[in-house]
Design brief:
With 266 residues, the chain is mainly beta. It has a domain of 134 residues: Jelly Rolls (Sandwich). The protein is 11% helix and 35% strand. It has 2 helices and 8 strands; from the N terminus they run H-H-E-E-E-E-E-E-E-E. The strands form 2 sheets. The protein has a 4-stranded antiparallel sheet with strand order 1-8-3-6, with no helix packed on it. The termini are far apart.
Length: 266
Amino acid sequence: MDSKTSMWQMISVVSLIIAVVALIMPFVIPGPEGPEGPRGAKGDDGADGQDGDDGNDGPQGPTGAQGPQGPPGAQGLTGANGTDGADGTDGADGIACWDLNGNGQGDIATEDINGDMSVDVLDCTGPAGPGSLIEIDIASANVALTGTCQQMTGAEIWINVTGAGIITIMAQVDLDIVHVMGTEDYWRLLLSNNPGQCLTPEWRHDGSIPSTWDSDTVAVHASLTRTYSVPGPGTAIVYLNAQMLSGAGNGDEMDNANIVAVFYPS
């Protein structure tokens, strides 16, 4: 091999080395950083990772404000009735309407309001009202009719008036008159404020049986009325009196009497 050939071989080898070095140098010695390129498109989201372990519970928070009251619930079923309790002890008896002093006894002097010598419900009177007042007396006693004026036992009426006004007294009386033919029987009944007073011409009933009638016991039903005024409050008492003016005899008597008193306030 001549020298000329050897030189070209050497030059080729050197050229090859230079070329290899030129290729390797950029990886061995980096050049300056180039400008940032444009941002690429957003890639797809990656798959969710696995849940991590639960952390520790945090501290309890403060109590919240009370919420609004909820609607009432449905009414429950009615429970069974309980057992009846034992009866209580009887109370004391009340005071009778006629027992004005509350002593449990009938006191004739102060509680026999209707004057029939007995204290009972007929003597019960309440407070007077603003309207008319009515009192009733029923007398049943066989009182002999004689030539002397006398009151029929128990035939009297009391009425407590509240003020000025008018009192009307109405009486119905049953008599038995033993008539003897040839004798006139003549009697008088009177409503009076005084017992045994038969002279006042008003408020009376006069009756008679002619002497020509056959002898017999005659039943007589008589009616009489008295009306008078009172100036103010108080107690008015009216008596039924009777007298045989002629023909008095054994068996003449008053049997029954019903008396009604009505007060009309003015």
